[in-house]
């Protein structure tokens, strides 16, 4: 079986000078675990890699446990395969917002939220933002930018489904890197 391309999205590292993880060390960490074609993107913890065996769930458990052992703290890690990323990009419900990467974000969610959870979140969406959930991805269009969005800060508490957000520039960069790492899975 040939190696498949995966993306690992870390949450809670290198935020506000806390839980510092150098990307060179993170690349070495993935290589030490036996993964190939390892590449990172920006400091928030985005890794593209190839794995010879295992699915996203098994790889998540393996990487989270090894990460905590090495760095001494837990980081929630979302591991997804390249087809998930391709689908995320192609199903973007806000193509008009994609030109400005600060105004379009995708949240990788730990699981698909229930209709009730999405409805509860929709009640909180009273500003200029719009959001849509497709499977385990939440798309957020924030016309004033994420930094100024009150709603964006409410998402984790209101939705109650753990996730990690990436701006559209990061999403597209990861898609390009995954293509360079090995093309389609």
UniProtKB/TrEMBL annotation:
Pfam families for this protein: DUF1697
InterPro entries found in the cross-reference section: DUF1697
Superkingdom field: Bacteria
Protein name from the UniProt record: DUF1697 domain-containing protein
């Amino acid at each position: 079986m040939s190696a498949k391309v995966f993306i690992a999205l870390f949450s809670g590292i290198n935020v506000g000078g806390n839980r510092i993880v150098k990307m060179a060390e993170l690349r070495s960490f993935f290589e030490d675990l036996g993964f190939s074609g390892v590449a990172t993107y920006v400091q928030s913890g985005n890794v593209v890699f190839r794995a010879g065996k295992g699915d996203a769930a098994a790889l998540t458990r393996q990487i989270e446990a090894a990460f905590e052992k090495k760095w001494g703290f837990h980081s929630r890690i979302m591991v997804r395969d390249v087809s998930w990323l391709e689908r995320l990009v192609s199903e973007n419900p806000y193509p008009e917002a994609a030109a400005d990467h600060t105004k379009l974000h995708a949240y990788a969610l730990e699981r698909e939220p229930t209709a009730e959870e999405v409805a509860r979140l929709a009640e909180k969406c009273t500003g200029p933002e719009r959001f849509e959930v497709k499977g385990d991805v939440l798309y957020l269009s924030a016309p004033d930018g994420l930094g100024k969005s009150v709603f964006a800060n409410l998402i984790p508490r209101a939705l109650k489904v753990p996730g990690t957000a990436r701006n559209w520039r990061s999403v597209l960069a990861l898609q390009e890197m995954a293509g360079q790492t090995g093309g389609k899975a």
